Amino acid sequence: MPCMHDTTHLKDAIRQKAANLGFAHLGVTDTDLSAYEADYFNWLGHHYHGEMGYMVRHGVKRTRPNLLVPGTVRILSLRMPYYSREAANPIEQLQQPEQAYIARYALNRDYHKLIRKRLKELVAFIHQLAPGFNYRIFTDSAPVLERPIGEKAGLGFIGKNSLLIHPRAGSWFFLAEIFTDLDLPLDPPFEKNGCGPCTACMAECPTGAIVADGVVDARRCISYLTIEHEGDIPEALRPLMGNRIYGCDDCQLVCPWNRFGECSHNPAWQPRHHLDNIRLLDLWQWDEETFLKNFEGSPIRRIGYERWRRNLAVALGNAPYNKEIVKNLSQTIDNASEMVKRHILWALEQQQKKREKSGEKKNRGTPFPTRVRKAHLPKDC
Ligand code: SF4
Ligand code: SF4
Predict the structure, then answer these.
(1) How far apart are CA 185 and CA 5, in angstroms?
(2) 3-state class of 299 per DSSP?
(3) Residue 50 and residue 219 in contact, taking contact as beta carbons nearer than 8 Å
(4) Residue nearest to atom 6 of ligand 1 (CA)
(5) Is 140 a residue of the active site?
(6) Which residues, listed in sequence order, are joined to residue 193 by a DSSP beta bridge?
(7) CA of 312 relative to ligand 1 center, distance in Å
(8) Is the separation of the CB atoms in 259 and 376 below 8 Å?
(9) Ligand 2 neighbour 375 (Cβ under 6 A)
(10) 257 Cβ below 6 A of ligand 2
């Protein structure tokens, strides 16, 4: 193993290579996450993880990296921006109830694959400089406490919305890690929490999912409900979801630090199939074959067609009364799965109520529950 002097230069070379591969920041930390362990197990104790039982099954592997990868002495934490300057304005999409809103990170290719490829290139480079080191790469792919690791490695602070935020880069970025036995010099942790008295994300979360500073109850979070949750979406939460059909970005959109967010110029993050600006009814026309074909290589494919239809049905129910919506929902009910059928029936009921309330002729609908009134989009995009 090289001496300390050599490892400093080695780290500089790794950092430069990581930048060339599109990573905006690389920090190095050790494996001691004990300061985060109690909070994590409290969160599990409150059942805020919902149906994500794997989080309990992994036990302390998440908070003790050495149990996950024995021999690890350092963790390289990396971030890659994904906010595409090419995408339509997210607030305009949220404010148009017949449009679909998809989380910014999912408008394009599956980031897991692209980031893994880049991480493999990075470790191949490190192997040339330091042959024989051991490593494992991760990108949201194993029990890894990504945000605490990022905070310890100096990549930012964990905000009240539980996301990692850097004052000069906001929070629109993916995280990735390399666990290694290479004894690189440590970076100082990010110690200053930048939230101060701000509570914008807590106040604007459509479902009230941010229950305390940095604590998200996944069972109420639209990201969880539209992606991870397998069964029926609780009826009480459906009207609050608006037109968000895959994920939710509201707690990033309102965060003032995202004025300083970075934009990605990587063509891999450019929206595909007009997903940044598309009508709910257009997506409702997609049969399963189209869904599978259009979402080839997309993270959305993993939720499957049934959950996709469930989410769309809820959003169509939340749209103002529209004869076309009622017709399309009614025409597809017979061939729907039992779960989707229940959501279509709910959506038809909402449409009917709005029709009665506003009168078919006027077709005004009800006010749309978009809570984001003031967004802080990256200024340099
Ligand atoms: S992603 Fe949406 S629902 Fe989840 S905590 Fe953030 S604002 Fe709330
Ligand atoms: S919106 Fe305000 S409170 Fe929430 S994470 Fe951003 S700075 Fe912190």
Answers:
(1) 9
(2) helix
(3) yes
(4) 251
(5) yes
(6) none
(7) 18
(8) yes
(9) no
(10) yes
CB burial string 282-293: b at 16+ within 10 A, e below = ebbebeeeebee
Spell 224-262 as b/e; 16+ CB within 10 A means b: bbbbbbeeebeeebbebbbbbbbbbbbbbbbbbbbebbb
Whether 210 is in the pocket of ligand 1, judged by its Cβ within 6 Å, is yes
| Per-residue pLDDT tens listing for the chain (381 residues) | 444 458 999 999 999 999 999 999 999 999 999 999 999 999 999 999 999 999 999 989 999 999 999 999 999 999 999 999 889 999 999 999 999 999 999 999 888 999 999 999 999 999 999 999 999 999 988 899 999 999 999 999 999 999 999 999 999 999 999 999 999 999 999 988 899 999 999 999 999 999 999 999 999 999 999 999 999 999 999 999 999 999 999 999 999 999 998 888 888 889 999 999 999 999 999 999 999 999 999 999 999 999 999 999 999 999 999 999 999 999 999 999 999 999 999 999 999 999 998 765 555 544 555 667 678 888 777
Report how far residue 57's alpha carbon sits from residue 154's, in angstroms, rounded to the nearest whole number: 29
Q: Which two tokens stand for residue 150?
A: 């990022």
User: Based on the number of CB atoms within 10 Å of its own CB, is 203 exposed (0-12), middle (13-18) or buried (19 or more)?
Assistant: exposed
Looking at all shown ligands, the one closest to residue 161's CA atom is 2
Q: Which residues of 48-58 are buried (b: 16+ CB within 10 A; e: fewer)?
A: bbbeeeebeee
Domains in the chain: boundaries:
4-85+109-180, 200-358
What is the value of pTM for the model shown? 0.94
Helices then strands, counting H and E runs in the chain, come out as 15, 10
Q: Which of 6, 32, 110, 140 is catalytic?
A: 140
Identify which of 161, 215, 252 to mutate to test ligand 2's pocket (most ligand atoms within 8 A of the CB).
161
Tell me which ligand sits closest to the C-alpha of residue 210.
1
* Ramachandran angles phi, psi of 272, nearest 5°: -115, 155
Distance CA(170)–CA(201), nearest Å, equals 14
